[in-house]
Design brief:
By secondary structure, the protein is of the alpha+beta class. The chain is built from 14 helices and 19 strands. The protein has a 4-stranded antiparallel β-sheet, with no helix packed on it. The protein has a 3-stranded mixed β-sheet with strand order 1-3-2. Strand 14 (about 305-310) and strand 15 (about 315) form a beta hairpin.
Length: about 375
C-alpha cells in the first residue's frame, strides 16, 4: 500500500484546546489554522518532556464499565489485531494511523497502543479535517476527554471537553474515508463517509451515530444517576445492524405461459451495501426445493466492489490500480433480480432465500490465509404456485 500524508496529527496542550467548540450539531468545526506538529517531533523529550496522558481501556472501565464492555465486542477493539489487518496492512504507517493510532505515540509494545481504536483514541480527538485525505488531531497531553455530553462535570481523573464533532458524521469520516493514490489516478478504498454524504440521509438529519451509537437510558459513569441518550459503544446499534439494514422479498408473475420468479433487495443502511473494507460481499442465495426438501434449482449472486491489480487480478487493495466492478446497493435503493424463468422450477414447491454478509470474498481470503466470516442478514421463503 502506498503511504500518504493521511493519518493522525498530535498537538499538545493549548494548541489542541483551540479546536473545542460549543456543542452544536449543524456543521463540523473549521480546522484550526496552525501548522501541525509531526508525530516524531512530539516524541522527542525536548519537544514534549511529559508523557501523553492516555490510558488503557481497563482504567476507563473502572468508571465506564458499560461502555467498555460494549467496546470490547466491537470491530474497533480488534482493529489492530484482526487477521485481515495483520495480513494486509500491519506495519504500514498510513493504515496504522487509524488501526492503531496510539502505537505511534506510545510504541508498538504499549498496552494501550495494542488496543486499536481504544477509548483514548476517540475521546482525545479534538479536531477532524476532511479537506484532503481525512485526518484527525489527538490532544494527548491535555487530560481532557472529549465527547458530545456538554453538561458533564470535570473529574479528578480527567477534565471534560464539550466537542461539536463527536455528534457529527465527520468524526467517523476521519477514518472511514480513504482513497489509494496510484500513478494512473485514485482508487477508492474506504468510502463509507462519502456514500452517506451523497445519500438522502444527511438532508433528513441522520448521521452515523444515530444508527451505530443509539442513545439509551443508563449512567454515563459509575455512581451517576441514569440519564437519557448515553451512546452505545458496540457500534452496531446495540445488536447487529446488518439485520435491520436490508429487506428481501420474493415474488412471481406470469409470462408467456410460464412464470418468472424474482427477488427484491432494499438497502436501508445509510451507506452502500456492503460498505467499508473493499473485499466485503453480500450474497443473495435462493434455493428451490421440491416437496421432499430436495434442491431443484439454485440462484446465487454476490454484490460488492471489486479491485484489480495491473495484471487484472483480484486484490483487496495491495497493488490495486482500478475498480473492476461495483454493483453494491446504494442507500434506499430497491433492486429487482430475476431468479428463475419459464419451466426451470419444475417440481419445486417452495423457494428459500438468504441474504448473507461475508467479511471477505473467498477468492481473496484463500491466498491471504484468512477465514471468511459469514452471517445471514435476512431469511425468507415463498410457496411456488402454478
Amino acid at each position: 500500500m502506498r503511504r500518504t500524508a493521511w493519518g493522525v496529527m498530535i498537538l499538545g496542550g493549548a494548541l489542541a484546546l483551540t479546536a473545542v467548540a460549543a456543542c452544536k450539531r449543524e456543521a463540523a468545526p473549521e480546522p484550526v489554522a496552525i501548522a501541525p506538529i509531526p508525530i516524531d517531533a512530539n516524541l522527542r523529550p525536548d519537544a514534549n518532556p511529559k508523557p501523553p496522558t492516555v490510558r488503557t481501556s481497563v482504567r476507563c472501565a473502572e468508571c465506564h464499565g458499560k461502555m467498555a464492555d460494549e467496546w470490547r465486542g466491537s470491530r474497533h477493539a480488534g482493529s489492530a489485531s484482526s487477521p485481515l489487518y495483520l495480513q494486509l496492512a500491519h506495519g504500514d504507517e498510513a493504515c496504522a494511523s487509524c488501526h492503531a493510532p496510539l502505537a505511534a505515540l506510545l510504541g508498538p509494545d504499549d498496552l494501550a497502543g495494542k488496543e486499536g481504536v481504544t477509548c483514548d483514541v476517540c475521546h482525545t480527538i479534538s479536531k477532524v479535517d476532511l479537506a484532503a485525505q481525512p485526518r484527525f488531531t489527538l490532544a494527548a497531553w491535555d487530560m481532557v476527554k472529549y465527547g458530545p455530553l456538554c453538561d458533564a462535570k470535570d473529574h479528578y481523573f480527567h477534565r471534560m471537553g464539550c466537542s461539536t464533532v463527536h455528534a457529527l458524521a465527520e468524526l467517523c469520516g476521519a477514518c472511514h474515508q480513504r482513497v489509494l493514490a496510484t500513478a494512473s489516478g485514485e482508487v477508492p478504498l474506504y468510502t463509507t463517509y462519502d456514500e452517506w454524504k451523497q445519500s438522502a440521509y444527511p438532508a433528513e438529519g441522520w448521521v452515523c451515530q444515530d444508527c451505530h451509537m443509539p442513545g439509551v437510558r443508563a449512567p454515563a459513569a459509575e455512581g451517576e444517576p441514569p440519564r437519557e441518550g448515553v451512546p452505545d459503544h458496540g457500534f452496531f446499534g446495540g445488536g447487529d445492524l446488518r439485520k435491520d439494514a436490508a429487506k428481501l422479498e420474493l415474488s412471481s408473475h406470469a409470462l408467456d405461459g410460464g412464470r418468472v420468479f424474482e427477488a427484491a433487495i432494499t438497502n436501508y443502511a445509510g451507506h452502500d451495501m456492503p460498505s467499508g473494507f473493499p473485499g466485503k460481499r453480500v450474497v443473495l442465495r435462493v434455493i428451490a426445493r421440491d416437496r421432499a426438501g430436495k434442491e431443484v434449482a439454485r440462484h446465487e449472486q454476490a454484490f460488492g466492489r471489486r479491485l484489480v491489480d495491473d495484471h487484472n487480478q483480484p486484490t483487496a487493495y495491495a497493488g490495486a490500480v482500478r475498480v473492476a466492478s461495483d454493483d453494491r446497493l446504494k442507500p434506499k435503493e430497491r433492486r429487482a433480480i430475476t431468479l428463475f424463468e419459464g419451466h426451470a422450477l419444475s417440481g419445486a414447491t417452495a423457494l428459500e432465500a438468504d441474504l448473507v454478509w461475508q467479511s471477505i470474498d473467498p477468492v481473496l481470503a484463500a491466498p491471504l490465509g484468512v477465514a471468511v466470516e459469514s452471517r445471514t442478514i435476512v431469511h425468507t421463503r415463498m410457496k411456488v404456485t402454478r
